[in-house]
Amino acid sequence: MKNKFNIDFRIFENYYSADYFKKTREILNKYKPKQLVTMQWFQRSDNTVVCGIEVIKEILRLSNIDNLEVEAVEDGEIVNALEPVLKITGLYNDFAHFEGLFDGILSRASTIATNARKISKAANNKIVINMNDRMDYFTNQQIDGYASYVGGIRNLVTEASFEFLEEESNLNGTMPHALIASFDGDLIKATQAYKEVFPNNNLVALIDYNNDCLNDALKVCNAFRGEIYGVRLDTSQGLVDKSLQNMKEKSNELHGVNITLVKLLRKELDKSGHNNVKIIVSSGFNEDKIRDFEINNAPVDIYGVGDAITKNKIGFTGDIVLIDGKKQSKFGRENTFSSKIKSIKYK
Question: Quinolinate phosphoribosyl transferase N-terminal domain location, by residue (predicted)?
């Protein structure tokens, strides 16, 4: 059977299920084997982009459970606090072990998708590259790539990030500082080597290696006139670029990759005839920093984003709200109607 999301089949052996769910399942299997329950999943934040429903459908499809009634929103649906996104009705023994598992799937994927949407919106639909591979455990890349795509950031940097997507990988990458270091800090030689080995790639030069972005940008653009697609600034927040060190600052606004530096870079590139060279920025960018750049008309063409993709965790909770069709739930956890939820088939 095809396994689109590469589900680990140990899920069905309770390997990933919390112990108390397994014990509850055994208890109810003894005392309430025919009890029909409705479980409902929700979260507590407004404007959440739901993601992970397709993964849950895949788990249910691969299971040996045939008699569940499943209702859910679609991946990419935007919901508010307390809106149900998934309801499952059936024998509790059949899906009790999935409660915490589904919480986690929805939480991780919806966090990524929601952050991706917010960041994309802040960037005014400019290109955003998801560079979170270096910020998280590597086995998250598949689900994070899928969720990032659902949220609107579709420029990914690893093959694993495309594994759950129904399209060919279109990897986005520039050059790391390690490449420049390997050529003794010579940006021109590193760029030439990149060009020779990957002649069909966009030629993007990393220009902050010497903390001299303006001079290095002009140097590499002049050396490869008409061939440079873009230059990337990745200056650490603890540094002030050499071009700005004679300026006075009030509150670290000249540190790292900043608006003043980007505007000055654009001015110098245009003055030297490199009007078509794109400016790519990375290092510490999140929704707020991107919005600030956009409000101040910073001439950025492409944003690179790392751990901002996984911040502001969204937690989901599954609760029993009906037993044998009658209200039965923890106080404050009512069976809630939502017009966004539709009946779905998982088999």
Answer: 32-110
User: How is residue 41 written in tokens?
Assistant: 């999943």
Cβ atoms within 10 Å, residue 100: 16
Q: For residue 326, how many other CB atoms are within 10 A of its CB?
A: 7
Contact of 213 with 207, CB cutoff 8 Å: yes
Per-state percent for the chain, helix, strand, coil, to nearest 5 = 40, 20, 45
Domain architecture of the chain: domains with CATH: 9-111+312-344 (3.20.140.10), 173-305 (3.20.20.70)
Place of tokens 């270091």: 181
Give the helix ranges, DSSP H, for 131-230: 141-151, 177-182, 187-197, 213-223
What residues have CB less than 8 Å from 291, skipping those under 6 apart? 122
Q: Which helix (H) or strand (E) holds 24?
A: helix 19-31
Residue 262 identity: V
Length of the chain: 347
**Two structure tokens written together for 240:** 């002030």
Mean pLDDT of 174-192: 95
For position 2, what pLDDT does the model report?
A: 66
The torsion region of residue 210 among left (phi > 0), alpha (psi -120 to 50) and beta comes to alpha
Question: Model-level pTM greater than 0.85?
Answer: yes
Task: Give bridge partners of residue 318 from the DSSP assignment.
Answer: 41
Structure-token pair, residue 223: 């050396």
**SS3 assignment, position 109:** helix
| DSSP 8-state symbol, 9 | G
Residue position matching structure tokens 């919390």 = 18
d(CA 303, CA 110): 21
- Classify strands 69-72 and 203-206 as parallel, antiparallel or unpaired: unpaired
The alpha-carbon radius of gyration of the chain (Å, integer) is 25
Residues 6+ apart with CB under 8 A from 136: 144, 307, 310
The whole-angstrom separation of Cα 99 and Cα 216 is: 54
- In whole angstroms, what is the distance from residue 153 CA to residue 125 CA? 9
Q: Is 90 helix (H, G, I), strand (E, B) or coil?
A: strand
Token pair in block for residue 17:
């299920």
Percent of the chain with pLDDT over 90: 87
